[in-house]
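[stage:ingest] chain + small molecule (adenosine-5'-diphosphate)
[stage:ingest] validated
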Amino acid sequence: MAKHQFQTEVTQLLHLIIHSLYSHKEIFLREIVSNASDALDKLKYLTLTDEVMKNLKFDPRISISFDGKDSKTLSVSDTGIGMNEEDLVNHLGTIARSGTKSFLGKLSGDAKKDSNLIGQFGVGFYSSFMAADKVEVLTRKAGEDTAWLWTSDGKGDFDIAKAEKAEHGTTVTLFLNDEGKEFASQWRIESLIKKYSNHIAFPIFLSYEKKEYDDKGKEKASVPVTEQVNTASALWKRPKSELKDEDYSEFYKTISHDSDDPLFYIHTRAEGTMEYTTLFFVPKHAPFDLYNVDYKPGVKLYVKRVFITDDDKELMPSYLRFLRGVIDSEDLPLNVSREILQQNQVLSSIRSASVKKVLGEFQRIALEDKEKYTALVSEFNRPLKEGLYSDYANRDVLLELVRFKSTRVEGYTSLEEYKQRMLADQKAIYFITGDNEAKLRSSPLLEAYTKKDIEVLIMDDEIDEIVIPSVDKYKDVELKGVNRSDAGEDLEKDKKEKEKDKDISGVIKKIKKVLGDRVKDVKVSLRLAESPSCIVTDQSDPTFKMAAMLKAMGQKEMPEIKPILEINPDHQIVDKLKNMNDESFIEDISFLLLEQALLVEGVEIKDPAAFVKRLNRIMIKAV
Ligand code: ADP
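[stage:predict] done
[stage:export] tokens:
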């Protein structure tokens, strides 16, 4: 017998599960049954594809039995793939899923809040310790001779010992604790299976002692019976008319580990040149690993109801990685290997049809059910934006689906709504990018737009900076960043007038001389109303934010971006500069005009000490 320590994360998770999920402890049965079903799926696939496994006797089934009398145990057995010693150590002693550490770090210690989070994380096998003070796993891997017994009280370590088991597969036995005793009951188990696992595609049998009574109602005998307790038909293959929302919800929970209902589902059957069924769910909340590079894909592939894989990131484009569900094809060969899937024509047709279907459905909801759509974008706006640059074929629909904040409306707006609100002579859709909404809303760059009543989209999502420049146009209207040198089109008319009555070319010359090659240019600004100056970037340069992001991503050879300094011709300071000849004073003011504009844009200034000195010199003059 060998003793092993649980990985620290497992111990943490166990502690958490027990303290935050105790009011939902019944879900352990769903988790164990769904593991059994996965194990059957995996073996079924092997019996169809693996030369050796083809000869294996495979009778897929899940059996549940319990001892309600003295020992109070509950066992769930499957005839699935089973585990060897190494599997046991790797799967029932560690958490392989990426992002576990950061997930655990997010927990607050407040049981109520944490139970929501943990619901999305998917607690799996470890939830059995909510109902048991000891768990045994007796298992034999298909194709191997040795069986193993894994035992633990869930308190930090587990044992693994050699054991005997006639058939391949796994039996999980729970030694129920005081709170778990209620589960040693035929009625309780049956209702839980109906609630959570009815649509598991394999038969689930429950064995119990059936009592028989005589005419007078006295107990005569008790006979052991075994009954199938689930419908065992793949839910997605059943006609929609037969299925209720609750059926979809429960199925969603078994495949997603989410404890919440889905936001909505999309169930499609395609017939004709290609035959397949898809069932997709949009979760209410973003999966915890949505932004991990090695996220776990949520769509499972079946061929004629045989599970093929749940680990293929190519089944759906990565920007739709938040979807959960099933693709079941009638046209793929059953023994299709996972490697071949990548280049498979049938699959890529299903994929592109599914993406169209899903996006089309999103569009319908956006039009017909605003509240639901708001719930969707508040969680998944960002992945949808990723689609703008990764899925060119669907860009037009995606442009209808993404949402932005705006200077005009509360909450989110679509580009279409913006377009409808555009002023009669407005030439472009304007936006400002940055990482802080409040800062953006008070940016001097917006002043002239606000004054002219032109709406500007507030893009404070990191991804906007990357995605939006690649989107030239919405329909036939150009998108323009207000911090770019060419965004002044609609302000152009003013320019002529301004240049006419206020000639500040002298001031500009003076400032240029002082700042030299610290700036790309110094210009009269059209976009300022109250601030004396602002910086913009040349339309051919990356923005400051973008440059910072590229640097953070490891790009070394970044040419220095020089700002264009714009000067407000109507500002008092600028006016005063006209007749000023004190060179050192002009120098200080010129630098301060640049530095304050940089600060407002959130760009670091090179020499803060010099900046403070200048500021103090000017303050002395003022007091
Ligand atoms: P998850 O199911 O989310 O992966 P679990 O903690 O429930 O997480 O299970 C961990 C792993 O243990 C599974 O991925 C699987 O590899 C293995 N496992 C659990 N139960 C069984 C079983 N009945 N048969 C075979 N393997 C199992």
